[in-house]
## 1
Amino acid sequence: MCLWLAYRAYSYGLPLAVIGSRVSGMVHCRKLGETEKLFLSLWVNKIGNFKQPSMKTVLHHFLHLFLAAFLFIAAFSFSSCSRKTEKISVGQVFFDQEYFVMKVGESAVLTARVFPDNADDKSLIWTSSNKGVATVDQNGKVTAVSAGTEIITATTKDGSWQSASCSVVVIDEPTAVDLGLSVKWASFNLGASAADECGLYYAWGEIAPKSKYDWSTYQWSNGSYTSFIKYNTSRDFGPVVDNKTTLEPDDDAAHVVLGGGWRMPTIEDWAELWYGCDWSWATQNGMNGYKVTSKKSGYTGKWIFLPAAGSRLDTHIGDVGSYGNYWSSSLGTVDPDYARFVYFHSEGVYSTGKSRCFGYSVRPVLE
């Protein structure tokens, strides 16, 4: 900075020889800025003709300028460092999923993400809306107590009052009903606690329910039915072709939620249930559906009830009491945007394919 001031002074008619003494006037400084005038007024004492200074004089005044610049910079730095650091507050808290499904007696840790990453205080206060269903400690560890649904909320401690919530669904493990077939069938739908309850709705290959069911929220595509990233048999439906046609255990909602040997039925399991049992339209505790009774010798008194639980498309639930829609774990045989499922109404039972992003019921089986 000192060298720059010296240069500006010289360029406006003030040679280096004048540096070092006080000034009485500012005639030659009209073109300089106010800051430059202030600095030069401290060092220049007159304007006119000057003798060429000696090298010793130049060095002497250069050192004066250097010292002045050093003191100025030091004072500025001290002032900057002494300022109070601005607090960075939390701007957003969110969970990766809207719902979390657990069995009674299980424990799991929920993860709430805090934004921005460099917030000063990222600690959270955890609360439960119904401790009779599940409890939560201050580390986000949730313990399932009894069947039901509750809301777990994480709120910031830093005074910004940002928060996020996750619906925790606690379910009982179903009974495995032996109908004399190759697999045992669950006594109620995944997410239900009784045979006449609808339970939860799942998109094919997803392990948690959600509030909106369409291609924009589907896990295994990039927003459309032509951008699949898993379970794809044709490049017409996405860049990743893996030729997988049956859900893997980690993508099987029944297996992930219930564990052990529980899984979603294949389309062959559904066919066996159709041919090995009598299906009759019935009403149980006000819910319509099919009573499915075994025809196998020694098992004719065994039956399960499949409620007409309807379906979820976009944000809507429809056809409850009129239609039942149940996923298999099998991908469609023609186009991979469809997965195989069984649907029914009072007039009949059918098997076909439907868009994987739809929300349908899951009836688990046990091997």
## 2
Amino acid sequence: MRFLPPFTAVLAVKLSRIDTNQYFLAASPRKVCTSFAFQYCNSLTTVTINAANLETYGENAFLNANSGMKIYVPYGSGNTYKTGWPAYASMIEELEDPNATYTVKLAENTDDVTNWTIAPAEATTTGVKKNTEVKATYSGTRHVKSVTAAR
């Protein structure tokens, strides 16, 4: 990663390396991303920003950076960032809603529906959080060819 002179780097934001091509910007009391902070960072693929907004959106913060790069921002703040960084709006994506829940349903016309159990039970009603293990068990006499998870 190449930074220009000292005053053009990310200021007052903690920059942590996740792996070779991913960086994470943690919120700090003063949230500033200066112009040219990530200029010519051709290998950078992901920037994750946890601040709901920034005080300063450096106009050229990602000038000539990787055109396929993604800038992930907190859920609900995508429009704020797209307004602050219109030149990079196509790169900005919101992180998943931290309160999102997922429900499990059997496909319509599933045979032997009464022989299926899904645990935990709330997976079929109120839903479960991401990364919760859900177990679908079939106790009938037919052969199950496949089970598919769909979003």
## 3
Amino acid sequence: MLASAASRNPSESRLKALDSVILGGLFNHSGPLNPTLLVVGLMLAPDRTFMTQTIHLQATVPDHLGGLRLDQAVAQLFPEHSRSRLQGWIKNGELLVDGKQLRAREKLLGGELVEVQVELPQEERWLPEAIDLDIVYEDEHILILNKPTGLVVHPGAGHHNGTLLNALLHHCPGIGSVPRAGIVHRLDKETTGLMVVAKTLEAQTDLVAQLQERAMGREYEAVAIGVMTGGGCVDEPMARHSKQRQKMAVSPMGKEAITHYRVLKKFRGHTHIRLKLETGRTHQIRVHMAHISYPLVGDPQYGGRMRLPKGISLELRETLSGFRRQALHAKRLELYHPVTEELMSWEVPLPADMLALLEELALDLKDMDPS
């Protein structure tokens, strides 16, 4: 299930990542930039798993960063914080250069003193819950799990508990000091399969960067309605649906979204496919497959009315009618370990309901052509 290969060739920004992270509020940074980072004013209530933090960061811009834009320089000075967060601090005047607010595009000379003092927003009360997790791999930095169907990843409207986040807080209490309990990407509630969780801020920053740089490999298997002639690529931007805000849609004004797919097996009226993501938009596979008129079996949002091929067996008819979730499984995950930089990969089998669906599809195909 696990394979490792040669170490990665990381970007410059990740080569200067935190050398150590001490959970509980104090971040020590050593290395070529050697800034001083202080985190003060931490408060943690017994029933609160995330902290209200007043963060004070301070660093002198080294000469070799002279000539860079402010936003580019601070991304290297404080790599444990995302670029979007740093840009927000610049815009809000919470990141100062020699005591003055600058614009993100202004260039630095070198030698300036950069300071940040900001109070992070207080998080909701998320409590640990004893929920069983199917853990595929775990070390002190990352956790790989096989998510079951029906498990919501993150608390939200209508799902304040019983989520993967609650389970992670119980399994690994220290993860409460990492934003979003270390979750760096999501799977839909009814989608099964592999996810990676960061157990430290350093690991989370690195994994998010891998997603942004498309260095993390994610492959899925699905059962689509209709018989495909072959594989292909869907390169269509996506955005929130203009009227149904709980849905996504292909939109020329949306963000780039690219999905590759290939045929594994054709049936009477369905296709077993393997998919690979270049981007990771919400509902991307489901929206793209529906867009090319091959929606996923059981998809309640994008599948449309159930379409049953003529002449199918009674058993397959019952299986399809009873399949109440999108037939989608995150089968393979590949990433560079955020600390060792080894290329690692995992693969898990299809869940029982998808195996049963494929078995019925195969039996129906055999009945259609006994030879």
